[in-house]
């Protein structure tokens, strides 16, 4: 990493969002191979493999406790933050193992961003500083002009620029829940991730904010590979091209029962358990 922000800068502030003058990083495919995960001696995932194709939205669906969030957190090395947590298997970002001991943890987090269920901006920090907060964490240096550019383009991509462009110095905590979630998306985008993981990003939001986030996701998927955990079957159908159905039988670790094209999973699932779940018959 050269420590510099990618892309051009110098768009006069207060005007229309700037268009990037350079191509973004090519779209990336994320591949999980035979992921097994434990908390202490309790196995919660068993040999889960899934390819999350470049430029697509992949939904992870399934009943509570079947390991969807654990799987998502393994995809950007957050699982290892839990002291008792261990795992086996590999996660490849465009063929490169993110758990390679030679690779820095911060690299995985930079390339693979995460948006959480509850919007978590730094409440007292300005909207502007919230967006660029990740630069420091990833050791990325940027000039004032580069920061201005990043703030504007990231907020525009997150669908928030127009609403906040005149109050960039106001605290992030003063925004509505839906706006805060889009601010968190902008913060993730500012470090130019190649994959964005979203853990039930709309579950704390009203239907209007949910719709705005979903529209934002569909736009973002053109340049960032997205993986979303959702309990909302309509949302999975609206936003994702691919779906994976997780299930944990009583006392057993979670597995993927079925995955594939979202429309096919909902219209003609192969496994009867998938049929029951997508039709609201259990879970
Ligand atoms: N920090 C932790 N320590 C111990 N066990 C955990 C921890 N986090 C999750 N688990 C357990 O791992 C299993 C999988 O949990 P996980 O949160 O991944 O499921 P999920 O499918 O995302 O559930 P939900 O849909 O309710 O969010 C559960 O049995 C849960 O109790």
From TrEMBL:
<dbReference type="InterPro" id="IPR027417">
    <property type="entry name" value="P-loop_NTPase"/>
</dbReference>
<dbReference type="GO" id="GO:0016887">
    <property type="term" value="F:ATP hydrolysis activity"/>
</dbReference>
<dbReference type="Pfam" id="PF00005">
    <property type="entry name" value="ABC_tran"/>
</dbReference>
<feature type="region of interest" description="Disordered">
    <location>
        <begin position="1"/>
        <end position="23"/>
    </location>
</feature>
<dbReference type="InterPro" id="IPR003439">
    <property type="entry name" value="ABC_transporter-like_ATP-bd"/>
</dbReference>
<dbReference type="InterPro" id="IPR017871">
    <property type="entry name" value="ABC_transporter-like_CS"/>
</dbReference>
<keyword id="KW-1278">Translocase</keyword>
<keyword id="KW-0547">Nucleotide-binding</keyword>
<dbReference type="InterPro" id="IPR005670">
    <property type="entry name" value="PstB-like"/>
</dbReference>
<protein>
    <submittedName>
        <fullName>Phosphate ABC transporter ATP-binding protein</fullName>
    </submittedName>
</protein>
<keyword id="KW-0813">Transport</keyword>
<dbReference type="GO" id="GO:0005524">
    <property type="term" value="F:ATP binding"/>
</dbReference>
<dbReference type="GO" id="GO:0035435">
    <property type="term" value="P:phosphate ion transmembrane transport"/>
</dbReference>
<feature type="domain" description="ABC transporter">
    <location>
        <begin position="30"/>
        <end position="278"/>
    </location>
</feature>
<dbReference type="GO" id="GO:0005315">
    <property type="term" value="F:phosphate transmembrane transporter activity"/>
</dbReference>
<dbReference type="InterPro" id="IPR003593">
    <property type="entry name" value="AAA+_ATPase"/>
</dbReference>
<keyword id="KW-0067">ATP-binding</keyword>
<dbReference type="GO" id="GO:0016020">
    <property type="term" value="C:membrane"/>
</dbReference>
């Amino acid at each position: 990493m050269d420590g510099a922000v990618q892309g051009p800068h110098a768009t006069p502030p207060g005007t229309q969002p700037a268009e990037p003058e350079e191509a973004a990083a090519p779209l990336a495919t994320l591949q999980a191979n035979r992921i097994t995960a434990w908390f202490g001696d309790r196995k919660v995932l068993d040999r889960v493999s899934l390819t999350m194709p470049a430029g697509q939205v992949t939904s992870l669906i399934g009943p509570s406790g079947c390991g969807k969030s654990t799987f998502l957190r393994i995809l950007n090395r957050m699982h290892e933050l839990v002291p008792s947590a261990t795992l086996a298997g590999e996660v490849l970002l465009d063929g490169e193992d993110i758990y390679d001991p030679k690779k820095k943890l911060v690299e995985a987090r930079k390339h693979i961003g995460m948006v959480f269920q509850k919007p978590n901006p730094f409440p007292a920090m300005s909207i502007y500083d919230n967006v660029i907060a990740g630069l420091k964490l990833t050791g990325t240096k940027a000039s004032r002009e580069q920061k201005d550019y990043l703030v504007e383009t990231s907020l525009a991509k997150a669908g928030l620029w127009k609403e906040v462009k005149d109050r960039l110095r106001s605290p992030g905590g003063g925004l509505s829940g839906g706006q805060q979630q889009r601010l968190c998306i902008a913060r993730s985008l500012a470090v130019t991730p190649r994959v964005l993981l979203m853990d039930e990003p709309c579950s704390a939001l009203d239907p209007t904010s949910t719709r705005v986030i979903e529209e934002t996701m569909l736009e973002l998927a053109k340049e960032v590979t997205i993986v979303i955990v959702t309990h909302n079957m309509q949302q999975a159908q609206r936003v994702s091209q691919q779906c994976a159905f997780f299930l944990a039988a009583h006392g057993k670790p979670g597995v993927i029962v079925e995955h594939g094209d979202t429309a096919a999973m909902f219209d003609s699932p192969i496994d009867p358990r998938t049929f029951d779940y997508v039709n609201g018959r259990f879970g």
